[in-house]
Amino acid sequence: MTALKKTVITMENWPAAGRCGANRAQGGGRMYEIRVTLSRCYTWILVLLLAAAGARANEYYSLDDIPAPPGVTPECGGMDFLPDGRLVAVFDHGEVCFYNPTTHEWKKYAEGLHTPLGVLAVSAREILVCQRAELTQLIDTDGTGVADDYRCVCNAWGLSGNYHEFLYGPIRDAAGHLFISIGSSSAGGVARYEVRGEFKPAGYGFGQDAMFSVVPYRGWVAEIGSDGSLKPIASGFRQPDGLVFDPRGRLFVTDNQGDWVGTSKLHYVVPGGFYGQPSGLVWRSDWDQLEKELGPAPHISGTALEHLDRLRHEGAVLFPHAILANSPGQPVFDKSGGKFGPFSGQMFVTEFNIGRILRVMLEDVGGEPQGAVTTFYDRGGLRAGNIRLSFGPDGSLWTGHSQRNIGWPAGEGIQRIRWNGSVPMDVLGLHLTATGFDFTFTKPVDPQSAAAAALYAGKRYYYLYHSEYGSPRIDIHTLNPTRVTVSPDGLRAHVELDALHAGYIYEFNLKGLKAQDGSAILNPLIAYTANRLLDGSTRPIPWPAPTGDKQGSGKDKE
Amino acid sequence: LKASATQSDDPRWLGYRLIDGYPQFHYTMSGADVKELVRPAPSGLRLQFEILGVPADEVIYDTDPEAGASFTSDCGKWQRSTLTLSAAEARKFTITLTERPKVEPLAYWSMNDVLWSSPRIDPAPGVVGRAFTPGGFGRKPQALDSGIAPSQLDGGATFMAWVNEKADSPTSAVFALGKSWMIAAPAADGKWHHVAVVFRGARAQGETWVDGEDRGATAQQLGVGDNTFTVGSVGETYLTGLIDEVRIFDRALPAEEIKRIYAREARIGGIAP
Predict the structure, then answer these.
(1) How far is Cα A443 from Cα B71, in angstroms, rounded to an integer?
(2) Closest by Cα among B65, B58, B22, B60 to B40
(3) For tag attachment on chain A, is the N or C end more exposed, with fewer CB atoms within 10 Å?
């Protein structure tokens, strides 16, 4: 029993995505093999434990395990649905498979791909897949149900051979244009001697332990032209493991905590924007000028750091590290029209390290999106390693899990979450006001529990922008609610605070809040990123000396 | 037909089709459209080419004379290891590769990518590509275990490497087995030298070649056993300097082959004969 306990703890504490040890994945030969083997053992032990317990859920959502395709290691890298309702899933070892949810049958459509991490199902005879080296169009030319033509749509970005050079996407905008994101290279590995694309050592110049970009467009989001050309549109991403367009056609991309990324976040991406991890700046057309402005490498402190801080866009929603997320992946919008519960139109995001799905509530402040994040589904049988989400035609949410082929701690396979029709007690929306926040709820709250000012006495803090790995929470202050007004219908609480400060995360824990029907709040922890206040103020650069405490570190795990 | 040295998208990869389960690769090179179907053949591979739009009179198919396969074709003219086809012939032709067992080394380390655990330490340039630095650059010294033992080489062997030993190196070991068996760098002069030692059997004396020249027999034998050869160190003592292009063959190379390999790599590395 001791050994079993130790095994599970070891899994939970293994490095997060993007923090893999130096020699494990590359150059480490024998050590790598041993660790992968052990990791697989752990995974299977966990799978057996889960199997014994059965997939669990809460009283509002049920959870199903989808059987794995025969003969395929079920490390899922991407999912989408065909117009006929079949699931298309890609797996890390290179397979593309179709699954019929009615007959529960799998069929292999293609194989031999290199770490596919995203799929777009155009039709049963045309599938687009992002694999490591290219965006590939898989065509079934003869109608046999199996792809026989593997066409390279675009491969115009660089590869240094570093193990961490993942490619994410593709997604398509309303006009049909394709978008991808290109992961930065890990300092835990190397650039190979033979690279694809121009080699630019300046891409190493942002810190010894920072991810790097020594070949083109590592750390960028790009559009693929209809002629297959690559149009890089925004830089500064560390591991942008998920892209999505909102219903208004705005592009959102997640990024993973680590060097230069104090905490994981969701970015609102605009063309030409820079989003914080600076290595990829070397591929901007104005890099020569920027390099002069930054001064000698490494560009990690003093005026260079302040310059980068002024240049960057902060995430629209920050996900507090080891509190709500460690490694977010795919975002999706709930377009089920209510089939998936009360959160229609909101965003869900995967969390890799534990079995969790986040829910994001966006609003526009000062003409730009910002907002709040909370948990939506927390453990309850949902496996870790959750990196992909896709809504099925019936409004169920499918989750794809992977340890990503290199021994990271996680689960495997595909699960499905279905709403059972009961409405959970939760925060439906969180809106910044001139003096505080408006909370809206999924169902009428018990006025007594909702009107208590102490319920909203959360805290505010920020994360540092620096080359180090993650950040503690800085300048922590307890919130002081001065007035709470609950609407007569019980669906809204207006909370006034003694002050608001731009640039802070406002974290609330509404544990104790009840609905009028007696049900307790299901997901009490919620964090709002106040990049802009209603009066137009934004965070100061640089921050003044903090007057509050600091807590946590970039290495924390939940 | 030759890929452009300046155009980054030449050759340009277009994808592949599966024909009876075998891949037909599709790419363009110098304006020509190339399809290359790879199928198995007895003891090798068959490459069926279809090259259209050749912007020249001829297509040259160049092969490596040291490769582990022999090349034949169903048309065109061979001159040594080079096949010349007319543009018309290039529209459809087949090249068959037949394996030449043991021609390629049992193990080969280009040293371009091995053992680098940090991009922050610039790998040292070697004769061809990057070199191995067993003594390290102020880092923990690195050992390279070849994984090859004398018992795998009882039909004869050739050890070959480029070495650049510094004057203050505590050892000259390029290859070592235990603490007493060693193939040493020929000079600790901070210059690149090519060293090759040929064993015609477990009990035969080694025949040493330095910079493509015969230096005669040594007293050393290959020996027997299952312990494996290391590269760049003997025990815990590491060579200070650089090692590159390490090969261990499970056959005794003829003199001409050693000279050819030396001459080719010396030319690439800009090393005067």
Answers:
(1) 77
(2) B22
(3) N
